[in-house]
Automatic annotation (TrEMBL):
Domain Bacterial bifunctional deaminase-reductase C-terminal: 55-225
Source organism of the structure: Alkalisalibacterium limincola
GO BP annotation list: riboflavin biosynthetic process
MF annotations from Gene Ontology: 5-amino-6-(5-phosphoribosylamino)uracil reductase activity
Pfam families found in the cross-reference section: RibD_C
Protein name: RibD family protein
Amino acid sequence: MPMVIDIAAAWDGLLQWRQEGSLPEHLSGPPMTAAAEQLLSLYRPLLEGPSRQAVAQMAQSLDGYIATAVGDSCFVTGEEDRTHLHRLRALCDAVVVGAGTAVTDDPRLTVRHVPGPSPARVVIDPHARVPPEAGVFTDGRAPTLWLVGPGNVPDTPTGVERIELPVDGNDGFEPARILDALADRGLGRVLVEGGGITVSRFITAGVLSRLYLTVAPLVIGSGRAGSTCRPARAFATHCDPPVRRFTLGQDTLFELDLGEDG
Ligand SMILES: NC(=O)c1ccc[n+]([C@@H]2O[C@H](COP(=O)([O-])OP(=O)(O)OC[C@H]3O[C@@H](n4cnc5c(N)ncnc54)[C@H](OP(=O)(O)O)[C@@H]3O)[C@@H](O)[C@H]2O)c1
């Protein structure tokens, strides 16, 4: 290991921490570059927290949109925030998206911007409307779990695990039930990646330990809203959460500590 820990060595150490469950010795000893210190500071709470916890991320404009009206979100925030997103994926066991994102973006949800393992991919799709040719169902790059409602569901794509969950009125699946189903399969640390409806349901349900919200210096004007969580629960509980700020290039990352274990 180098005498001064640089960002690459710090990231290796964080991956080792994720794997072994304790802070590697080389991260507590030698001096670090400023970038390595920021990296360690940003992800430390995630790794120090319980092995079962759910976090969420959103990248939004100054006026609160995560995508344009036609669903184009490539890219609201810059390169450094995308690297941050890939780091979050690499530190989690599972990454969750809603059907809207799976249909609009056809995302891969793998780790490509940094070294590290890709998480299991989870698609919340109560009406089974994500097409069978979607990349997460066909590319074989990481395991995929497909969460569907009870009823007339088409064939499960080969290699995909289908999990049928009960629907709770208009709110769909209870987020806590989703996290239980994932924990039962050894997927304890969960990143809820988007979109806005999906993240908002997890915030409203009060099951997130933290929210990573990156704001880009950009006005979109109209489009897909980021947070649409219900005031009664979300603001009564989280009106003034502890927050940390990080600079990611032109963007500002707010890390809100919501204080819940998944
Ligand atoms: N900037 C970012 O950080 C970011 C990240 C990801 C995605 N995006 C963008 O966000 C847009 C899509 O976001 P969105 O808010 O429209 O949709 P979304 O959150 O991706 O998907 C919402 C849909 O997922 C299903 N769903 C989510 N949670 C559920 C639950 N608890 N129970 C049952 N069903 C649940 C429902 O499907 P049904 O409608 O079938 O009931 C719901 O309408 C895309 O344009 C994408 O590009 C942006």
